[in-house]
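Q&A FORM
Asked by: J.P.
Topic: structure of DUF2786 domain-containing protein

PROVIDED:
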Amino acid sequence: MEDRQKIIEKLVKIKALAERGIGGEQQTAQVMYATLKEKYKVTDAEIEKAAAVPVDISEIDLKKFWGIAFQLAAVAKTLQEETDICTACPYTYTDEQCTGCGTYWNMRDLRLDFEAIQQRLIKAATEG
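REPLIED BY: S.T.
REPLY: Here is the structure written out as tokens.
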């Protein structure tokens, strides 16, 4: 059962990337999502249920989880700096131009890191 839950959690993330990814990243995620969903016989209802569990982190005592909170803040700050660089870019934000840019990939990786650290914070706060 635990393995199935991990598969569903992974599908939630892949679905999010399939919905808001850019260009080839989005297309790849869409194919991967459909393939894994079929392979593991996971229903849309299971995925929606797993994705619809909002957790309010505003009430978390960040002092208790200062290490994770610091990581989250550091990633958020770096992501903001990369976003500022991207915003100042003279290109027109096409897939061909952006996918060749290090800032584009940095932002993508930082968003994934942010989500992973945020989930670690939520897990630590709800378990302890």
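FOLLOW-UP: The CA atoms of residues 82 and 106 lie 7 Å apart.
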